[in-house]
Design a protein that fits this description.
Number of strands: 0
Strand content: under 5%
Number of helices: 3
Mean pLDDT: 95
Helix content: over 70%
Low-confidence stretches: none
Radius of gyration: 15 Å
Shape: elongated
Order of helices and strands: HHH
């Protein structure tokens, strides 16, 4: 197994663990951790796809990244809008 395959496989594992965390109610979909792990996982998968290109997989990962970034922005905005005690 080459380095880019290892990186991609770790990325897949991150996304699977994140999804399982939500399904098992161990992780909140509105948390920074959820979006950050999804973002990192998708970026790692894209690394492997740069070596073994597959258009359909690239498209889904790009959207995964966009949606994860959106989640991070919403999390930041929500934190700014929340009054401090």
């Amino acid at each position: 197994m080459q380095l880019h395959d290892i990186v991609g496989t770790i990325g897949v594992a991150l996304i699977i663990v994140t999804y399982a965390g939500v399904q098992l109610r161990k992780m909140d979909v509105t948390s920074l951790t959820y979006s950050a792990l999804n973002l990192l996982g998708a970026l790692m998968i894209l690394v492997s796809l740069a070596y073994n290109f597959n258009l359909a997989s690239v498209v889904i990962e790009v959207f995964w990244i966009i949606i994860s970034l959106w989640g991070i922005v919403v999390w930041i905005k929500t934190r700014k809008d929340t009054p401090e005690n």
